[in-house]
Write the C-alpha cells for this entry.
Amino acid sequence: MSDPLPSPFGQLNPAEFLKGATGKGVKVAVVDSGVDNKHPDLAGHVKGGVIVDETGGQISFKPYDGQDTAGHGTGCAGIIARIAPEAEIYSVRVLSCIGVGADGYKFAGGKPKHMIVGTDWAIENCQVINLSNGLSVSEGSAYSEAFQKLVEKAYYRDRILVAAGENQGLPSYPSIFSNLIKVYWASFKDALQFAYQLKPKTFTEFIANGSYVKVPQPGGGYIYEIGSSFAAPHITGICALILSKWPQLKPFEIKTLLYSMAQKMPPAAGK
C-alpha cells in the first residue's frame, strides 16, 4: 500500500518528503551513449537495454552490451543510481562518440530517427526516461510531428520524460514540448535541491544541479561535468523516488509534486 499524500500541497522539503524512498520497483531508461555496467557505481544497477543500430537504412535493436561509446550516458546513469539506488536502470544507446573537445562531446550517429526509435522503446519498457541529449530546432524541425506524437504517447501511457534544456539557452527538441519535464542547470549543494523557474524562451521549468557534478566514467574513473545534461538526471532520480512511494501517480501529479518541492527563488541558471 502506498503512503498517503500530503494535502493540501504546500512547500515540501524534499529530504523529508522523500524519506525512505529508494526507487525500488521503478524502471528508468537512459537514452544516451550507453552505460558502462562494470563501473563500481553502476554494478548491479543496470538491468538491460538495447542499442539502436542502422544498417542499409534499416533500423534494428541489438542487445545491450554493457558498453558506453562516450561516457555521457554513464555519467547520467551514475547520478540516477546515486539518488535512487534501488531503481532499475536500462541503457538505450542512440549516440556514438567521436571525441570530446573543449566545447563538449562530439557525437556521430545520433540521428533524430535513432532518438525517436530509442525513446519509443524506452516508453514501452520503462516508467521514467532520461533524455540528456537533444537536437537544435534546425536539426529536429523536420521530425517535429514524430517527436510530438512520441511525447504524447508517453504522457498518455503515464511515462515520465525528463529532458535536458539546451545549454546555449536556445530551444531544442524534444524539450520544447509541454508534456515533458524540462531541466536547466545551476549550482546546488544537495542532490535533492532544485528550483522552479518557468523560462518561456528556453522552454525550461526546473533547474537542478549541473555545476561540476562528479560522475562515473567508463573504465572505473570519475570526471566533473557541467551543464543541463547532468542536471536532468537529478530530476529523473527524484521522479524515480516519487514513483517508488506513490506508483499510482500520473505525470501531471508528479510535476505538481516537483513544483511543491522546488525552491521558488532559484539561483541564476547556468551558474
In short: Helices lie at 14-17, 72-83, 112-125, 137-140, 144-156, 228-245, 251-261. The chain has one domain: 15-261. DSSP finds seven helices and 15 strands in the chain.
